[in-house]
């Protein structure tokens, strides 16, 4: 269903424009998409330099790149209480085709963006292609991956969390490895998170990628605070204080992403898990693995700052407590209903934040696991695996991010028996620019993890995913040098899975 992305201008915003943060579209439905922008005069100002008055914004959607064949248009107000952001839920569009859009405000035009609606329910679709990305720390690299991504032939971008990072540029790790600065301290308030999001949005490469395709996004921990779990954040003074911080972070995330009103937070709560369908080919389920989870098991003794850690099973029995949850009761019940009903697409795709396959990590003596990932929530993990295994066909792919590396893995039917039958394929998409994961530690652990076929935490990039009727193809697209904003990019490795046959094969 993809069309060539050479057809139409997509540019970063001018520095003198009121559209300094660019434009975006997201969450494509068969009859429409969300169009987004946020008006700012001063990126560093808490209110974007916009003051307290609403600003009138006009918008238009056309069938052609020059916006001569306009099919939808309207006027809205950019309101100060949502940081003068605009979320237009456009309806009445044709399924499975490209559109171009633009905003106007204060006699200024935005760049022209391109978006694409989803194919109609049940419509036969021969191919869909998208990019999966995550983990884009501003300080540790330029976003060289987004510029070539914007030139790809894609239907959408799937962002799997850590759109921003809360770490300060003065941290010891940043001093040694930083490539560029963030002129703010750790965000805690709504004004803080708004400034951080604004700063990230000024990058021209990410503006190009947002303007080129609709994005489907979910948050992870760094969008709020490292390793937070539900209403708990290690190191924070109280649950009440953290929930105020979480409310601020969630609000700013919504204000800066092309999300629907249904995802708009109410205080510290927001329903970000959701389901999208792409004709008869892909049934996409997006999961929220931060907001509802139980606290991390077996936290280190105070005042240690390392929230999650590697532990052995013998020293962390709490990780196997069946009452512990990753998804929360309501989301897990919703997921069970989704997986139990007849498929809406030939492929079932789970978009989630974490390494999903079990990963036994080598310790000084024996093996262990990370308490922050699914391995720290073993019973909840097995419940989800069981839901996947109960499906009549082997049609499930699980995508993840978080660990700052590329991973190709099979998902065993019994998480504590990694040699058990494979029930799904699992891909970790890599990191756009965050500090790379423990490559040597990952490699040393591979002999204990025969279900994991590939790990690379030495390169940054994203994963290009191509789905046809009978094959899903995953290409790890890696930049040569994350410090260079114009870095080259190549394919590090390619894996495939066949419909009806669980598991991956390198090609």
Number of helices: 8
Distance between the termini: 24 Å
- What is the CA-atom radius of gyration, in angstroms? 22 Å
Oligomer: single chain
Share in helix: 10-25%
Identify the strand order in the major beta sheet: 5-2-1-11-10-9-22-23-24-25
Beta-strand segment tally? 25
- Beta strand %: 25-35%
**Largest pleated sheet:** 10 strands, mixed
Helix/strand class: alpha+beta
The residue ranges in which pLDDT falls below 50 over 5 or more consecutive positions are: 1-11
State mean pLDDT (0 to 100 scale).
Answer: 93
Shape: globular
Condensed summary:
By secondary structure, the protein is an alpha+beta fold.
Overview of this protein structure:
With 507 residues, the protein is α+β, with helices and mostly antiparallel strands. The protein contains eight helices and 25 strands. It has helices at 146-150, 172-177, 190-201, 204-212, 239-255, 329-340, 378-389, 439-445; strands spanning 23-29, 32-38, 55-62, 70-78, 85-90, 98-105, 108-109, 113-116, 127-133, 156-159, 214-217, 274-278, 282-286, 310-311, 347-351, 361-362, 367-370, 396-400, 406-414, 417-429, 452-456, 461-468, 471-479, 489-498, 501-506. The strands form four sheets. It has a ten-stranded mixed β-sheet. Strands 12-13-15-18-20-19-21 form a seven-stranded mixed β-sheet. Strands 3, 4, 6, 7 and 8 form a five-stranded antiparallel β-sheet that branches. The chain is globular, with a radius of gyration of 22 Å.
């Amino acid at each position: 269903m993809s069309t060539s992305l050479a057809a139409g201008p997509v540019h970063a915003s001018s520095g003198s424009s009121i559209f300094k943060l660019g434009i975006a579209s997201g969450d494509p439905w068969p009859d429409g998409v969300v169009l987004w922008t946020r008006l700012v005069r001063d990126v560093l100002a808490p209110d974007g330099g916009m003051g307290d008055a609403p600003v009138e914004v006009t918008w238009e959607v056309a069938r052609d790149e020059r916006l001569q064949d306009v099919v939808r248009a309207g006027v809205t107000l950019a309101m100060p209480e949502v940081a003068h952001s605009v979320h237009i839920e456009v309806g009445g569009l044709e399924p499975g085709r490209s559109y171009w859009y633009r905003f106007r405000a204060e006699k200024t035009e935005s760049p022209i963006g391109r978006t694409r609606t989803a194919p109609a329910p049940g419509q036969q679709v021969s191919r869909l292609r998208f990019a999966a990305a995550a983990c884009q720390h501003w300080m540790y690299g330029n976003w060289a991956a987004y510029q070539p991504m914007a030139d790809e032939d894609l239907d959408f971008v799937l962002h799997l969390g850590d759109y921003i990072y809360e770490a300060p540029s003065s941290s010891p790790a940043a001093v040694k490895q930083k490539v560029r600065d963030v002129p703010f301290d750790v965000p805690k308030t709504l004004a803080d998170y708004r400034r951080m999001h604004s700063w990230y949005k000024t990058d021209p490469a990410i503006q190009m990628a947002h303007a080129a395709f609709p994005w489907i996004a979910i948050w992870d921990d760094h969008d709020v605070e490292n390793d937070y779990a539900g209403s708990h954040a290690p190191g924070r003074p109280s649950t009440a204080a953290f929930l105020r911080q979480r409310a601020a972070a969630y609000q700013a995330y919504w204000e800066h992403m092309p999300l629907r009103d249904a995802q708009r937070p109410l205080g510290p709560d927001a329903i970000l898990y959701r389901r999208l369908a792409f004709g008869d080919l892909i049934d996409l389920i997006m999961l929220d693995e931060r907001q509802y989870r139980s606290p991390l098991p077996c936290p280190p003794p105070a005042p240690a700052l390392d929230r999650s850690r590697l532990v052995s099973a013998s020293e962390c029995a709490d990780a196997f407590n069946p009452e512990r949850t990753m998804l929360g009761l309501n989301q897990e019940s919703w997921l069970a209903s989704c997986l139990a009903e007849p498929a809406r697409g030939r492929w079932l795709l789970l978009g989630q934040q974490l390494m999903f396959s079990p990963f036994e990590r080598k310790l000084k003596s024996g093996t262990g696991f990370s308490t922050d990932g699914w391995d720290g929530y073993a019973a909840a993990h097995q419940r989800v695996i069981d839901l996947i295994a109960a499906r009549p066909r082997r049609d499930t792919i699980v995508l993840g991010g978080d660990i700052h590396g590329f991973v190709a893995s099979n998902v065993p039917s019994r998480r504590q028996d990694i040699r058990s039958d494979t029930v799904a394929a699992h891909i970790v998409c890599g990191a756009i620019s965050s500090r790379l994961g423990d490559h040597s530690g990952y490699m040393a652990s591979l002999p204990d993890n025969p279900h994991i076929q590939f790990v690379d935490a030495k390169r940054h990039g994203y994963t290009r995913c191509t789905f046809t009727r009978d094959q899903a193809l995953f290409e790890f697209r890696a930049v040569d040098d994350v410090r260079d904003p114009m870095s080259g990019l190549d394919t590090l490795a390619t894996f495939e899975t066949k419909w009806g046959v669980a598991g991956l094969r390198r090609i």
